[in-house]
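User: Let's play a game. I give you a shape written as tokens, and you guess the letters that built it. Ready? Here's round one.
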């Protein structure tokens, strides 16, 4: 009886693994074809001798965006594939990681015409984390928020704040978009499920969730309605000794 149960469980796990690989292949193939088609078409146009310099500049920009999109997708895939391995922890501050993620996301075309506001904190946000992974997780949440905010017919705004407790540090990201539909909230963090999500392979939120869990934390959809969607990423400080004072007063500084 036990052998039969174990055999059934192995079969279910294998079936789930194959289904995930199938969704991954379909999603990645679709995105890669999209980016490659843009590069190929624009490269052909560049061969025309009748183009004006302004037209060439536009084509080069479209190629640059396609290449950046491909690199961004591959980076997410590589980080996702490494989740579960030993973390390369370094001591840093969450404030610096958020700053780096904000600088990166502001160069993304989906952040154009979106105002990003940072509420700075006076609290100690020191953490021992895999800096590259956590910065990418924050970046993905920010990009998702920008993509959502761009769908707003009015205010296009993303607000970011950092809070600190004795053992954890959290990043809260709020956007002014239309909100997350009820029907997809249960699958938001599933890998390679892009239906109903923002653009891409469906890895952005999954990666953020996986990174947070590996750092003894979590990513949650705190609330969502028209004009206000809030995600919160929390990680453990993972410091051997902590002299941190939680809930320090915060000074609000808005930066774009």
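Assistant: Ready! My guess for every position:
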């Amino acid at each position: 009886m036990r052998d039969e149960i174990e055999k059934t469980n192995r079969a279910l796990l294998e079936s789930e693994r194959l289904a995930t690989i199938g969704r991954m292949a379909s999603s990645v193939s679709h995105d890669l074809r999209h980016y490659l088609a843009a590069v190929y078409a624009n490269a052909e146009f560049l061969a025309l001798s009748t183009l004006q310099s302004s037209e060439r500049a536009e084509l080069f920009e479209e190629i640059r965006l396609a290449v950046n999109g491909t690199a961004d997708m591959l980076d997410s895939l590589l980080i996702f594939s490494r989740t579960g391995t030993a973390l390369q922890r370094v001591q840093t501050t969450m404030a610096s990681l958020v700053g780096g993620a904000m600088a990166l996301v502001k160069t993304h075309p989906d952040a154009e015409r979106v105002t990003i506001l940072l509420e700075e904190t006076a609290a100690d946000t020191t953490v021992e984390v895999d800096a590259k992974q956590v910065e990418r997780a924050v970046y993905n949440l920010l990009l998702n928020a920008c993509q959502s905010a761009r769908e707003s017919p009015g205010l296009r705004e993303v607000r970011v704040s950092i809070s600190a407790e004795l053992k954890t540090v959290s990043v809260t990201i709020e956007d002014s978009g239309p909100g997350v539909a009820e029907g997809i909230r249960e699958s938001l963090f599933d890998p390679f499920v892009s239906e109903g999500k923002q653009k891409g392979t469906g890895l952005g939120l999954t990666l953020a969730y996986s990174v947070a869990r590996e750092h003894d934390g979590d990513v949650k959809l705190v609330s969502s309605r028209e004009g206000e969607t809030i995600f919160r990423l929390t990680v453990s400080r993972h410091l051997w000794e902590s002299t941190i004072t939680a809930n320090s007063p915060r000074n609000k500084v808005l930066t774009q």
